[in-house]
Amino acid sequence: MRHLLLALPFALLPLALANAQSHEHDHTEHGSLDKHEHGVASLNVALDGSTLEIQLESPAMNLVGFEHAASSAADQAKVAAVRQQLEQPQALFALPIEAKCTLKQHELQGALFAAHADEHEHEHEHEHDEHAAHEPGEEQGHSDISAHYQFDCATPAALQTLELGSFFGSFPGTEKLDVQLIGPSGQQGAQLSPGNTRLTF
């Protein structure tokens, strides 16, 4: 599922290095796994033929509003609500209807989701992921959430834009999305915000 996205950071490395020259926090350009900046998330998008892959990496603070273990009922409800939102990517990313994209696979990862699953979904089919994601003491430090999506688009030529207005509306804690895109026009980088929500292929 991740073969396109795994190659993405390497393909965009020259672009990322160029961006880093003018970026105040150049450490954030070296890949999503090395950064944790509240308010900032990364979005990798790759379109190859009829296959569209989207990868979101974000501090949990941006999406859930906290990074500690969800011990209270209110916190657990918030985690469950965010998970439900992330499981509906068509709404978050506003894929053009004309592209006829169907979600084929998706995967959510994060210590908050794992802990929530430990308490409430002992029979969940992804139970084996929980042990890898839930490290002792992690809830006291930084906590990240990642989401991977793979779509099959019957009319990929109709994929001209992605509209992220709904994403920013759903997760107001996200102030900026650093985007890396590989599409028919080649590779490009972009920075989206609540005032600039459209990604053009």
TrEMBL record:
InterPro entries: ZrgA-like (IPR021253). Coiled coil: none annotated. Pfam families: ZrgA. The keyword Transcription does not apply. This is DUF2796 domain-containing protein. Residues 117-142 have a biased composition (Basic and acidic residues). The keyword Signal applies. Residues 117-143 are annotated as: Disordered. Residues 1-20 form the signal peptide. Keywords: Signal. It comes from the Bacteria.
